[in-house]
Structure formats: C-alpha cells, structure tokens
Amino acid sequence: MANSGKSNRKWIWLIVILILVGVSGYVLWSRLLREEPLVYESSLDNFKYGSIGTEKDGLRVPFWIWLVLPRMFPEYLPGPGGYVSLGFAWEEGKELPIGLPKRTIGQPMVGINCALCHTATVRENRYEKPTIYVGAPAHQFDTQGYFRFLFACASDPRFNADNILTQLAPVYKLGFIDRLLYRYILIPQTKKGLLEFKQSMAWMDSRPAWGRGRIDPFNPAKFRYLGVPMDNSIANTDMESVWNMKTRVDHGYVYHWDGLLHGPLRDVVLSSALGDSVTPKTLPLADLKRVEDWLLNAPVPRYPFPVDQALASRGAPLYQSHCAECHAVGGARTGKVIPITEVGTDRHRLDSWTQEAADHYNAYAANYPWKFNNFQKTNGYTAVLLDGVWLRAPYLHNGSVPTLTELLEPVESRPKQFWAGYDVYDKEKVGFVANGEDAQRFGSELDVNVPGNSNSGHLWGTTLTPDEKRALVEYLKTL
Amino acid sequence: MSGDETRVRTLDRTLTDEVRESPVDRQERRTRRRLLLLLALVVIVVAIGWLVRRFTADRPVEYADIGEHFKYGSIGAEPGGSLTAPIGGVLPPYWVFKVLPEICPEKLPGGYASLGMLYEPGHDLPVGVSRRWRLGFDQVGLNCAVCHTGTVRETPASRPQLVLGMPANQLDIRRLFGFILDCSLDERLTADNLLGKIAAAGGDLGTLDRALYRLALVNQVKLTTLKLQRRIGILLQDDVTPWGAGRVDTFNPYKSIQFNWPLERLPHDELIGASDYPSLWNQKARAQSLPQAPDGMWLHWDGNNNSVDERNLSASLGAGVTPTTIDHAALKRVRDWAWTLPPPRYPFAVDDALAARGEPLYRQYCSDCHADHHFREGQAVGSRVGTVTPIADIGTDPFRLHSYTSTFAANQYDLYPGSPYRFHHFRKTNGYANQPLDGIWARAPYLHNGSVPTMRDLLEPPEKRPARFYRGYDVYDQKRLGFVSGVAAEKGRSYFLYDTSLPGNGNQGHLFGTQLSPEEKDALVEYLKKF
Fold first, then answer.
1. Could you give the CA distance from residue A285 to residue A307 in angstroms, rounded to a whole number?
2. Is the CB of residue B319 less than 8 Å away from at least one CB of chain A?
C-alpha cells in the first residue's frame, strides 16, 4: 500500500510537471515561433506588402521595437519625420510603408521585401502629397540609411529593455508575458541580430556612402554569403525599374547593370531575395514566384505632366537614329552588354563583379532544388530598354547625371555635384530637382569626383544641336 | 574571550531555571508571539496594499451631468503610466497647477483667467481642466472644453455667457504652455515654497504627501517640464508667429510630443500653423453621407480627416492623453453629446425682413460650399459642402495647409497601434475644407486662421479688411457679426493684437461676396444670424 501510494504521488508529480512544461512550451512557441502566413489576394499588394521571408530569418525587427526606435533615436535619422525621412513610400492609411512586410513569427515582425527598393515617389512641389509608383527605382530611398539607422540604434547603450519598454508604454500595452519575453528574449535577441548584421556589413564603412536611390547590389552577396575574399571594390549603382519584365525575358536581354545574369527571371528574383538577407533554407519559393509573375506584366507608368506632342514628334526620328539601336525593342544591341571601352562610363561597378564571384554564385545553390547556373562575368554595361525612362532618374548606372537634359551634354558640362533623392520633379530638364535648399535638405550629396561616381562616358547625343536635344528629351518623356 | 562567553551562558541557564514557566504559560507566550507576528504581517500587508492602491489607483472626479462632464470631466489627459515613468499629460499635478501663478506672480499677474481660462462659481479649476487621482496624487489634465468653450457679452457691463462647444475665442493656450514651462523651471519652485503656498491655499497635505513633494514630486515636475520644453520650446519662440487668443497650432506640437521629431530641423515655415478653434456642435450632421463625401464630410481646416471619431481621438492627444492613458468611456460621453449638440441660437435680435433679403443672395453665392441655415437640422444642401477647395482657388493663407505634411500623415498611421482605433483616415490635401456654417455667429473671427474679425469684414475685399485688430475680447458686435475687435485692454486684462502681415496670419483670399453692394452685404450678414 505504502509503496503504491508513493508511486502514485510520483506519477501525479510527473503529470503536473509535464502539463507545466507543455503549457509553458506552448506559450513560448506561440509567442516566439508560431508562424502566421501573410496572404495578399492581389499580386500588387503582395509585391508591396508581402513576405519574401526576411521576417523569419533575415533583417527583421519586432514591430513594437521598430515602432519606437525613431522616437528614441531621431538623431540617427537623416531628418525630422521618423522613418519617412529615409524616403519610404507610404500609402494613405497604412500601418507600414511599402517594402516593409509585417508578419507574425510569434510576435509581429517587420522585414523587408523587393518593393522597398523598387517603389518611387514623385511630386510637383514640396507641399504636395507624393504620387507613388510601384516598380520604379526607389530614387528617394536611402537603403543604407535604413540599415545604418537600425545598426546605430542597436549599437547605442540606450537600446535596452528598460528604455524600449518605457518608450512603448504610452503607445501600446504589452501583456505581462509579452513584456517578459520582450525584456529577456526579444530585445536582447534583436540587438544581437542587428549587431551581427552590422558586422557582416562592416565592409561598407570604408567605402563611399550609397546615398539615396543607390545600393551596392552584389558586394553584400560576395562578402556575406558567397565567401568571396574581401576586396576594395565599390559598386554603388542606381536601383532599377522592375516593370515590363516580359519584354526583357522574351527578347533574352541580360539582367543587371553589367549583365552579370541571363536566362530565367526566376534567378534574378531568388538571388535578389538572398541579397535582401533571406537564407537559402527558408527561401519562400511560392511567394517569390508570385513576385516574379507580377514583374512580368507590371505596367510602365506614363509621364504624368503635359507633353509637347509636336516637339516630341520632332524628337522621334532623332531617337531612331541616335538611340534605338541600343535602347529600343528590336534594336540590334538592346539588352546586350556594350564593352566598357566603348561606353566609357565609370567602371567601378563592372570591376566589382568577378569571374570568381560568378563561379561562387553558380555553385551556391548546388544542394537546393533551385540552382543557379547563369551568373557570368562581362566586359561592359548593359544597353537597357528605356521604358518609363522619365522615372528612372538620375541617369547612367551609377546615377551620376541628374537629368536627361544634362545627360545629352558633354561630360565637362554635366553637373559635378548635386543632391539625389528629392522627389520633386523637374519638368524642364526631365529628372528630379537636384539643387536648391529643399533638394539639399532632403537629398544626399552626389559628388562625381568620389570613386564610383564618375559621370563620364555615354556621349551619344551630346553633339546634337540644342533644339534637337530639346526635341529628343521631349520624345523620351513618352517612352 | 571564550571565558566570558562561558560565563554568560552559565548565567543564562541559571536565570532560565529561576523563571521556569509552567507549560501553560509557555503555550500562552507562544500564542501571543504568534499573534503579534500575525498582526505585524497584517499591518505590513495592509500598508503595502494601501501604498499599491495609493500609487496605482486611477480615479477621475466624475460628473453625472453631461455639461459638467464636458467642462470638468477627465478624458484621461492626466499623467499616467507609473510613478517612475509617467506618460502623457501637459499640466503639473493639481496643487502645483493651482499655486503656480502665486509662485511666479509677475509672470501671470491676473492668474489663469488673464489667459482667457474661464472660471465658474463653485469650481476651483477653470473650464477645460479636469481632476483625476493618478500615480498617487491629485493630477489635472486638459479636456475638450478648454478649446471648445467660448464666452459672449452683449455689452462690457453684461455677464459673460458661457457657450459650450463654441470655439474658445478668449483662450491663449500658447501663453498657458509658456507660463507653465517658464514657472516650473523657475528657481522659486522649491518644495518649501510650494508646500507653503499650498498650505496657504488651503491644501491639507498629509505627512507622506509632504515627504513625497520634497523627495520626488518637485524634481519630477521640473524633469517633465524640461522634456516638454525640449520638444516644443521652439514653437514658443518669437520667430514663430504667436498663436494668440482663440487659436492653436494643432499639428506642430504633435510632431514633437508624439513622435519626437527634431522640430529645429524642419523648414522654418512649416512651424507656423496656428488656426482658429472650430466649433464642436452638430457632429452627426457632419458625419452624414453626401454624394460628394460618401463617408462623411472632410474635417479639420484642411479637410485632412473624414472620421469624427478619429478626429476626436487625435484632438485628445493634443490635450495630453496617450493611446494607453486615454479614458475611452469618458471621451465617448463627450462624443455622444457633441453628436447631437444643437448649435447655439443667435442671442440677439434678428431683423427678419432684412434676413429674408439676404437668403437668396446666400443661395446664389454661398450655399453650394457652405449649406444653408437648415444644416442645424442636418440638411446639407450644396454640392461642395464638406469637400476641399484647392488652395489655388480659395487663395487664403497657405501656412496652415503646408504645416500638415504627407510625412506627418504617414507618422499618424501608427497612432493607437494594435487597436481598433488605429488611425487610417488622415490624408494630405491641397486646400481648405468647405464647412457648414451652423452657429457661425459664434465662430468669429473668420477664415481658418481667424484673420478677419467679423463677417461684414469678410465680405470686403482683402485690402479693406482690418490689417491689425484685437482678439480675445468677448463683447459682441451685432452689426458686423463678430466680436468687437478694437479694444486693447479692459479692467487690467489686455487682448491679443493680431497682425495680418505676419507669416501665417494673411487675411487674403475667399473673395466670394466681396463684389456685392453694401446693402446686399448687410442683408447677407443678417441672414447668417439664423444659422
């Protein structure tokens, strides 16, 4: 009897302990790991706000921390206005800007997606509300500034549970368990994660700033996960438009400024997601396929201001004779690489990509059902299709020429210094306003003497008469 | 050493032997000891409970009557959160607020009343200031009535009539903030001085209160003030056009208080955004669906929001609530009351014959944008009522419009996050909203920035409108429809000189009706008295 009573008690204890472990395990799982799918019915919304996987495993910040950081550390932002000062495109009524998906991984997590670098804003004047163009290069967005803001916050000793929870108190009431999880797990973990990411991007600090509208597209891949030995290359280049990809795919055009990738569009999308910090293990193939499908037929936005049709029609034949061979559908050299010796533009971006890097990327996905085989090393820059070129300022691969009018000037007449990223449109010169108090307040300085920023080369059209140039620029508005 | 110890121990045993207790005694002693222990425990628990209750209790002074609730009830704008990290609120604790004018008498000679705060008999706090126990003290906060209660007098000798829901034509809230910041940081604000003044004012503070004032509260007040000063100090400087009586800059303080924007890095002209307080009545009529505004009229001067409830929550932030300290139930009482609050009738005689001649003129020139006198019953005639007229067409001063930016709207979308209240109706517009004119007689001065003292002046071309006039005086000008605007001071209280040449104060634009004959204008003005 005594014996069985003791063993009964043991069982009861065991069951109690099991229940406790089970319940707390469930609570922890549900508040730290439980994944909720993020589903957008429209593929446009999916592009703008959908997940490419970073909230789970990549550059991610718990929403409640993300929300209070600009209020805690406004000094690490380029100006007043919270995150908007970095140039996010923010739709009316939305909780988060385009490009920052919010998905629950235990807690609401903020990641990044493709739209972050491929959504532009345009205004006619400072006082207007911006018009948002999805698929356009995010000329106004400071990607590096966003990274550096998060890094600076995480590096600051004030980034701690006491301060963050104090800052959150007037904004949102976390429950008791969540408060504990934030204090002891999420806040320290976020700090650690951001600092690790910062470490993996430390190579940026010895190179010129990207500035608004530009990124270094492949050095993050080379140094963070391809295992290419560190070099001193500078690859600051404009973000690109991603609309109308079907035309490019159908004609077999190469991708990226130097044409380092060719073949299926899928490779561009997958490798870009990897570049955005998603890991190969968690790459959400179905979600990315939706993105890819949207890109194929994403519409090219029309020039939103009046066009002088008569003038434009005088420009059309000039375009045919001077530009179409390289830049129009059907042009013999369109979508192909033009040797650097011929185009003569800044070569830093070209040189930053090597055969070794291409080999590494082609081998990178050997163990995954998706594979890369089409990375290559080229000797020049791609002659790109000019659809929606009015919205792709500043010009040349490195964004070193603010407007189309100035691109048609000889190199010595192009501006040596200007401010990039201000979203007020310059209808005269066709591009964005790049000078003056407001451009300076909002934009980032681009000095063509900084390595990687040279505005040399691409002399086509520079010998036209002023009248011809005006006509050509007017025609370019219609593309 | 060891010898001593032995001796003591021996002695002890001897003594114990001498007073050896009976087992009953021992039992009794043990029981007594246990009882004492229990008592001590109870006392400690009660004390802790009392302290916890004292410092975590949240008790507003409540008013059953809705009018009293509107004027004096709390919407949660008192500081809340925890004692160590208070959140929200723009006023110091009750007793500090009460005696502050006596601590810095030369900074506010006439007390809060000289700033246009309204006192009623039987109340020790002005209209618009609520009282609530939070964080272990009696706190005060602002409520809706502070900016939405006005006064009217027929003659200088008349008693001012309080009109609830009317723009606070008399209140200079920027000077109120300026005074509180200034005096809270004054070196005369010490615990000794404060406690003395409180005692003299009849404050019966207990020992614990006095200790807390000395140890923490005075420093807490100064700390909170310093934070507020750092955030909105720039808006109180001379190079930012003063708001003056009856006006507030709604959104610039908001940029720094809610979001901690470094205001000094904004373009300077964006910091100029003062505009008149609007009226609060007849909200239901504004929320109705119209062909041109299916989800309700566009509210605020620039028409940046079409949700009455969201607008209310936004205005409450301005009073000092936070999304976690707001008293939703209390605000809802005010909301439900303002929903159907009738606009006040014009309190003086109306010449009906003259008004009848004005009505067709109104229909011709005004009603398409501003509805007619039936709006008080909810009827909104006019195809453009509740929509926004672009700034290029309306031509009025643009500063207020430009101070509300799309960047700011984007920030607002994260207010009241994680709740059904999260803001999503705000938008950036390109002009000013066409408002219905219910109770328009009580909404002078006119235009969004209150740059034209009377309706009759508004019907003159801009160059004939007064370039400088006084605001805050509440004697009514029945002929011109508005407040008497030529009085600089009365009974020691001076009024605010409004200068239309300052940035943001322009009286240009809105030329509708300016081409009418003087007789027609008089008739039109008479008709507007029926609104």
1. 42
2. no
CA separation, residue A471 to residues A175, A307, A477, B357, B385 (Å): 64, 11, 10, 60, 45
Q: Which residues of A touch B88 (CB under 8 A)?
A: 170
CA dihedral A84, A87, A89, A91 (to 10 degrees): 20
pLDDT digit string, tens, across residues A35-64: 999 999 999 999 999 999 999 888 999 999
- A351: CB partners within 8 A, 6+ apart: A233
In angstroms, the CA B300 to CA A477 distance is 38
Min Cα distance A245 → chain B (Å) is 31
Q: No. of H helices and E strands in chain B?
A: 19, 17
Q: What is the signed CA dihedral for B27, B29, B34, B39, rounded to 10 degrees?
A: 140
Paired tokens of B418: 């994680």
DSSP 3-state of B481: coil
Compare all CA atoms of chain B with the CA of A73 and give the residue at the minimum distance: B260
- Are the C-beta atoms of B528 and B480 separated by less than 8 Å? no
DSSP state at residue A146:
H
Report the C-alpha gap between B427 and A134 in whole angstroms: 20
Terminal CA-CA length for chain B? 101
Judged against a pLDDT cut of 70, whether residue B12 lies above it is answered with no
The DSSP output letter for B374 is G
- Write down the pLDDT at residue B316: 97
- Condensed to tens digits (0 to 9), the pLDDT of residues A302-324 reads 999 999 999 999 999 999 999 99
Judged by CB atoms closer than 8 Å, whether chains meet at B266 and A128 is answered as: no
Q: What is the 3-state secondary structure (H, E, C) of A197-253?
A: HHHHCHHHHHCCCCCCCEECCCHHHHHHHHCCCCCCCCCCEECCCCCCHHHHHHHCC
Prediction pTM value? 0.93
Report the alpha-carbon distance of residue A143 to residue A399 in Å, rounded. 15
Would you call B295 exposed, middle or buried from its count of C-beta atoms within 10 A (0-12, 13-18, 19+)? exposed
Closest chain A residue by Cα to residue B263: A80
